[in-house]
Amino acid sequence: MSPNRIRIPAALAAVGMLTAVPVASASAVHPGSHHVLLISVDGLHQADLATYAAQHPHSALAGLVARGTEYTGARTPVPSDSFPGLIGQLTGGDPAATGIYYDATYNHRLLPAGTTSCAGVRPGAQVDLTEDLDRDRSRLDAGQGLTGLPGSVLGMTGNPATLLNPAALPVDPRSCRPVQPHEYLKVNTVFEVARQAGLRTAWSDKHPAYEILDGPSGTGVQDLFTPEINSTGPAVTGDWTTDNAATQQYDGYKAQAVLNEIDGYDHSRSRRVGTPAVFGLNFQSVSTAQKLPKSGGRPGGYLPGGVEPGPVLTSALDFVDGRIGAFVAELRRHHLDRDTTIILSAKHGQSPTDRAALTRVPDGKLLDGLNAAWRAGHPGAGDLVAASADDDAMLLWLTDRSPAATEFAKQYLLAQNGTGTDSTGAAKAFARSGLQTVYAGVDAARYFGVRPGDDRVPDLFGVTQYGVVYTGGTKKIAEHGGVAPDDRAVPLVVTGPGRESRTVAAPVTTTQIAPTILRLLGLQPQALQAVRQEGTRVLPFLG
């Protein structure tokens, strides 16, 4: 910490309830910025930022830290997945308010995708917010039909709802029609509030399903650029995430979209529309570099000890730093640095950072065993597990939600010992299914702060032992979704004109980004429904 930076003690982080307001309205506070650029570097830990800034004092990342307010105690929502992570940043809410627990979940009220005649159909449906919703998930344009890909990808539509396959969406039993991602979100977004105030909005992310950011109105993001990251990548076996150089190329398209927007164009640079008031993107390169055991013949992840980045991760950090530097330079070229605030954070971290702690556990075998045990004790019954999301946490939705069934699942899992693999692929024993703590039934609902029987809440939430990653293969050495510090301890830096340089050690959450954005733009934070429900406050020293 440099001597001119101020360290604010954690005792100053008191949280209180905000007064509810019924509608969005312009604030009496003068706006501190005309533009807010939000950058999510997925996978980035606070420790990564601190190390990089210290080792590269003239870097763009170090510059953001040196000129801004750095919150060293920031945490993401639980589960620490991409969807709850980003939606928390842009609504101010945790899953209890937003209804979004993961990118692929289950809803006990909706009807299965493809249902066209709803009478008599048993409720219960997968809710998929991944690449599986695309018209064509093999294409970078998600099936739009552009020629000349990947170079032509900036020609993708800014309305990715048109790229979704309606037959892959769950169905509302009341209307008997598919539920769009934005309709599934329970609360409004920063983008919707900005639009109500007549401000322009834009965002770039990794799947067309991110049209969820349009919010319940369906009109939040005017220019939403969503090239499909899980499409077939060039000159690699697999998609754009299977080689970090390919991921950097992919991220480069989104970075170019932001540069075009800074210049006053839409993401494709085909129309002059003015620089958005709220805009930004996510970077995937760091996340890929942390997950891959190897890429381009070099080791991924961290060096032994889990602190210093290895060569692939170093390359990814350098790439992200270069793109952020380009944003800063372009803002300065247009004199927009005088009224633009940059917020740097991450949807999630990644765990474990130390590959010596890694234990890969084949969750498929565990769930197959659970289903078999349930059927054996309940003749005529089907599988107990309706859906699961298992990365470095375990989320299960069950076909039978009774206390007896949820307790059965809990006790079965806690009794399972077996053999997985370590980071080299060698056998490594695990106990209790790799779980540290299991919340089931009422306890799971209580953990997330919702009523028992909520349609969306997992029926079982398992907190893993540190280092456990659920996978049947050896393609990754880290994951996210859990509650470990490696999953949740992300950077949060706010840099803008007239901001005093300081370090805030107080615990804060990334959900506080949403009301902070509105305050910076001179809008009412209480216009966000989740802010009113959860009492989410503006970040300290920015309100």
Automatic annotation (TrEMBL):
Signal sequence extent: 1-26
SUPFAM superfamilies for the chain: Alkaline phosphatase-like (SSF53649)
InterPro entries according to UniProt: Alkaline_phosphatase_core_sf, Phosphodiest/P_Trfase
Keyword list, A-Z: Signal
Keyword Signal: yes
Protein name: Type I phosphodiesterase / nucleotide pyrophosphatase
Organism whose genome encodes this protein: Amycolatopsis australiensis
